[in-house]
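Anyone? Bumping this.
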Amino acid sequence: MIRFGRDVRRRLKDRVMAVLALACVALALIPLGSIVYTVVVRGASVVNPEFFTQIQPIPCSPGANLTCTQGGIGNAIVGTFLLLGLSSAIAIPLGLLAGIYLAEYGKGPLVFAVRFFADVMTGLPSIVMGLFIFATFQLAFPGFVFSAIAGALALAVIIIPFVARTSEEALRLVPGSIREAALALGVPKYRVTVRVVLSSAREGIVTGALLAMARVGGETAPLLLTAGGNSFYSVRLDQPIAAMSLVIYNFATTPYANWNALAWGAALLLVVIMLGLSIAARFLLRHRFHEQRIRG
Amino acid sequence: MVFPFRRGTRRALLHPTGSSWGDLLFRAGSGAAGFAILALLALLAVVLAINALPSFRAFGFGFLGSTAWNPVRDEFGALPFIYGTLITSAIALLLGVPVSLGIAIFVAELSPGSIRVPLTYVIELLAAVPSVVYGLWGLFVLVPLITTYVSPALQGALGFLPIFQGQIYDRNLFTAGVILAIMIIPTVSAVSRDALLAVPQHQREAALSLGATRWESIRIAVLSYARSGIFGAVMLGFGRAFGETMAVTMVIGNRNAISASWFAPAQTLSSIIANSAREGAAGSLELGAIVELGLVLMLVAFLINVFARFMVWRFLGKREGGLE
């Protein structure tokens, strides 16, 4: 009788634990669902041509006798893409070169150190990277602390170690036999790397670059200390520049209804762009694995 | 000497790989890029240290234990921010780790193979949402929810604890901790799922063959086997919560004070930097103090990450342990 009771308890516990694990999954999906729902519902109401082309409106305080205009975040959209493009142009070649070094020449304790600390750097808080560029500019170029170039550099510092590690992983997936075949034909190693290995690992490298952009496209804290934000259109590298993430922060923390609405619109656009980048990266990755499975 | 090969082959054989100029240049170039990463990390520490020097000269190690923050009288201390950072991270781990472990167990051990991959993608979407969007959502959705329902309920049920006493502010430590808990779930669940999947199948089979139920085999044979990997995952989550800035800055209330109550506004290392760095003039003691806070943040985050990576790498092997 007692043994029977214990068995029932054990089975019951097994079931309860399975249900609890499932409940954890559900619990994590609730905030995700809520975020997506509120961002879409509140953001969609301001998405129209004005939103993409205009700059910020006069704040519309409750009770004031002003006609409220919606305005837009055109300057911030331009700013975000400029910062992303500039930081990628700096970071992706450098990160890719470092990844080649790790994958193709990767032996010895120093290479291990580069790999390990690249991983550690991807885990450092982004605001530390922003503070680093901020402090560097305070020391070296005090006039340009808040500028597009400072913002791009801060994002680049965040991207470099990430791109280095993702491209290393992509290069490592290229079978050694391909390298050996090319080397056996008498091709110098650097040409094997550039023409054979890099082109085989193309999708993986592009995936890493896209994920890196998705990672920093929504960064706010480092830009707060470097890009600085701008209420107007600007594409000058030596001037402060607007960004969508800064718009969200600045407008969400004000009491003005029309600014809050723009923050939600900017959040919707930013999330769509970031998710688009992530999904594009996933699609490329799956495509590649699919090919490999067919070949293998 | 007659050489019976085509020109390219002959050149390759006469100049073995590694000795040509192209190879040397390429190797040097990529090597320089690799070491640029190490140099960047070193430069980061040096630049922050130089900027923090005025503050370190003025306050020494007493900076870490002081609660002053008065730009007018040039008195600065780090304690309230260290306290805020530790408490919010602790709440995040307290709430986020059990949920993440539950997800990892479900995905790795219980779910049918067909929903494993889509479920993983969906959880990873949580990581793709920018921090500032979490802050926006927190400000307009989570803050009212917690202030109206959760906090009063906690105060009613557990009000005898000092952490749940006192006035309930709408932006406070607790809300910041809850947002951080949501934000660390993708990291902690993904890395601990990898740790669980790395447990050899015979571990489970051995436990099941002894008559263990599925939960017993997970607890005895899987979780205990993977504990160092899971510990690494928790540390990675801690590192993320420790340095997270925007979402926290938007919901924590930004008050430089130490309160026992979790319902009181506070400030973290990262939120004070985000709030005040722009105000410090170059060379001022205030800027030095803010950069010194950044240095503290960086050093602790660095140590947490070194430790976490080490644990995860050791458990998963060098190949897979790399990226989140």
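Late reply, but here is one note on the structure posted above: Residues 318-324 of chain B have pLDDT under 50 and may be disordered.
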